[in-house]
Design goal:
There is one protein chain. The chain is α+β, with helices and mostly antiparallel strands. Strands 1, 2, 3, 6, 7, 8, 9, 10, 11 and 12 form a 10-stranded mixed β-sheet that branches. Strand 8 and strand 9 form a beta hairpin. Helix 2 runs antiparallel to helix 4, helix 5 runs antiparallel to helix 6 and helix 12 runs antiparallel to helix 22.
Length: 682
């Protein structure tokens, strides 16, 4: 045989099967384009020169691996549709005298053409859209914009390597499949349908049990840390349950429809239901895949959108004042009015030099300690001196913050009075405490005099992952001594925060001046005042990290959502195409016995509507039950705006539902053209 024969046959095969190949080629191109853009953004020089750039680069690096792994899995999935369709053609070549090694050569040339063409097209598209992606990322991160066009060599090399390996694996898979199959098996591969599966009640029940466990976890878990630890467990359970329910449930649905004689023996339903019953294993798996991808798109879009548009609120919660200075001291003996006044005066002296008059001042003291809360009983970890083992109490992890009532009144303008042994409390970070007392043991006990409505604006509380119980108490010294009796030594802090009303550059200058002044950090002063550490925070200097993180997550969420949406569209398309070719003969027979084109259309609509809403409805159900768990995960990012998250979730679901209906409409028309043999128009 001439060497040029195999390339011509490969190109002819692609051209003749363009209905199958064009979406596959577009998907390969899109995957390569997305991967190039992510790696381009990861190595972008503009990220190196801006605050928050390293955070965004790390997020994009993780996203690059997600895209690469997903591209490999999904291209294997879609390539199986092509391989199944081409086996009949290969069987004909085999009968005409081509050996299996010749068929493998055709596959090699097809893979070469597809790999080179789609990767090159993906790189060209990626390069063309990379600047737009860069401008979008810089806008999301509120960074400077450069109009210099650049091409990333590392991104090109990485794309060539990743997709070269993927196409090589696809070639090996195709060569093995063709090489191990006889000519008769190749010819009959497309016609060899599946045996009608039985409705497996056990698998269906197992799916509902797994789904119930996942839903129960999502609804009942209240701690953000626990939600983070069990989130991926719940995700795996939902995926397994979805596949089990979709496969077994779809079989059971067809069986029930067939038992309904009035419904089944109807021209509109007979062919569609009978054909679905013979391929429910693949049909159910395809529907489950669409459902999982839809859920992933909805979760990513709603969560990353909420994070980005709630970034300003999160920033203000973490840094309630433009500038803040805090000192950690050895004990409350160094939190007296005189000790605090000396530090305050030196801070004000620096501000006066910078012509800054502090506004909205926060000036308060506190004790902070980590422990456990079980009902109204507070307890702490401790080491048994005899066995040298760590005792870990039962209960939820909590942070306890003690604030003197005088400081709280000065901060909030309230006029709370407390008797000895009383405390006014409020809870933060989704705490569920509602007791009438807080008992620490060994005599440290507080009766809850009231629950406070005015929160204490504290960036440390906003930053804490665990819930916080704030106790406004008559005196800090009593609380410190009581905790010391328990063998616990809390962090004693004085906090001084204020706004300046000055531009961002001036705020950063004042922050640096406070740092250079080294207030309270001289050796003799530190020892005399019991100072352990000093912290200076400037909101404007940390703003870039916030938007670097949230902007990077939002950008990655958009890219991954588009990629997963491509995957869902392609699964639906190939599902309709493959089923169309399988059902072509069945509808042909029905046309010969008098079935009209209009009846074919009604039968197709019936088939689509029978299964159309299943993935979308189940995705909506998954999203609804995942809402509480995702909300608690968002608390880890200081997002407390539940209304924003709810609105973005609803908008995402509605927008996806409209797009989903449009996709099924288009692919349903393709199915109709195949089974009714109409190629010009509906």
């Amino acid at each position: 045989m001439k060497f040029g024969l195999y390339p011509r046959l490969a190109l002819a095969g692609i051209r003749k099967n363009k209905r199958l190949y064009v979406p596959y080629l577009l998907t390969c191109t899109g995957m390569a384009m997305m991967y190039y853009i992510i790696i381009f953004l990861q190595h972008n020089e503009m990220l190196d020169g801006m605050r928050g750039g390293s955070t965004a680069s790390t997020i994009l690096a993780l996203g690059g691996w997600v895209v690469a792994i997903f591209a490999c899995i999904f291209l294997f999935y879609t390539h199986s549709f092509l391989l199944r369709r081409r086996k009949k053609e290969f069987g004909l070549y085999n009968i005409l005298g081509m050996g299996r090694r010749h068929l493998v050569r055709i596959e090699i040339w097809e893979t070469i053409f597809v790999a080179i063409g789609t990767t090159a097209a993906g790189l060209l598209c990626g390069i063309a859209f990379s600047k737009l992606a860069e401008l979008g990322l810089m806008n999301l991160m509120r960074g400077g914009i450069s109009y210099v066009f650049s091409v990333s060599v590392p991104a090109i090399i990485s794309t060539l390597l990743i997709f070269g390996v993927i196409h090589l694996l696809l070639l090996l898979r195709a060569a093995i499949a063709v090489g191990r199959t006889s000519a008769i098996q190749l010819l009959q591969s497309e016609a060899a349908g599946e045996k009608p599966p039985r409705a497996n009640w056990f698998l269906g029940l197992l799916g509902f049990i797994l789904l119930g466990v996942a839903y129960y976890m999502a609804v009942t878990i209240k701690e953000p840390l626990m939600a983070l630890a069990l989130f991926f467990v719940a995700v795996v359970l939902v995926i397994l349950a979805t596949y089990l329910i979709m496969i077994s449930g779809s079989v059971l649905l067809c069986r029930q429809l067939q038992k309904n004689t009035a419904y089944y023996y109807n021209p509109r339903h007979f062919v569609s239901v009978s054909s679905m019953a013979y391929r429910m294993k693949r049909n159910g798996a395809g529907l489950a895949s669409v459902c999982i991808l839809a859920t992933m798109v909805l979760v990513m879009l709603s969560s990353t959108t909420s994070l980005y548009f709630g970034a300003e609120d999160s920033l203000l919660a973490r840094y309630p004042r433009e500038l803040s200075v805090s000192y950690s001291v050895e004990s409350t003996d160094f939190l007296t009015d005189d000790s605090v006044a000396e530090l305050r005066e030196e801070i004000l002296a620096v501000l006066e030099q910078k012509n800054c008059a502090p506004q909205n001042v926060q000036d308060w003291r506190c004790l902070r300690i980590f422990g456990y809360l079980n009902g109204t009983r507070a307890d702490f970890e401790r080491i048994d001196e005899n066995s040298q083992t760590t005792y870990e109490p039962d209960g939820e992890i909590y942070n306890f913050t003690f604030v003197p009532v005088s400081d709280y009144n000065a901060l909030t303008g309230e006029n709370i009075t407390l008797a000895p042994g009383e405390a006014a409390v409020y809870t933060a970070r989704d705490s569920r405490f509602s007791g009438k007392e807080v008992d620490f043991g060994y005599g440290l006990h507080y009766d809850v005099a009231s629950y406070l409505d005015t929160p204490l604006e504290d960036g440390n509380i906003a930053m804490d992952i665990a819930p916080t119980l704030v106790l406004v108490v008559p005196d800090l010294t009593e609380a410190e001594y009581g905790l010391a009796a328990l063998g616990q030594y809390p962090a004693c802090r004085w906090n001084y925060g204020f706004d300046t009303g000055l531009p961002a550059e001036k705020q950063a200058e004042i922050s640096n001046s406070l740092y250079d002044a080294n207030i309270g950090m001289h050796d003799d002063y530190t020892e005399a005042h019991g100072i352990r550490t000093r912290t200076i925070e400037c909101r404007t200097m940390n703003e870039a990290d916030f938007f670097g993180t949230y902007g990077g997550l939002f950008c990655l969420g958009i890219i991954l959502s588009v990629e997963f949406l491509f995957a869902a569209v392609l699964i639906i398309y190939y599902k309709q195409i493959s089923e169309g070719y399988e059902d072509q003969s069945r509808f042909g027979i029905m046309q010969k016995v008098g079935m009209t084109k209009a009846e074919i259309r009604r039968s197709i609509n019936s088939q689509l509507l029978t299964v159309f809403y299943l993935p979308l409805v189940m995705a909506g159900l998954h999203l609804a039950f995942a809402f509480p768990m995702i909300r608690r995960l968002l608390l880890l990012f200081n997002l407390n705006n539940v209304g924003l998250f709810a609105i973005t979730t609803v908008i995402s679901f509605v927008a996806f539902g409209v797009l989903y209906a449009l996709i099924y409409r288009i692919t349903g028309n393709v199915y109709y053209r195949i089974v009714s043999d109409i190629h010009d128009r509906e």
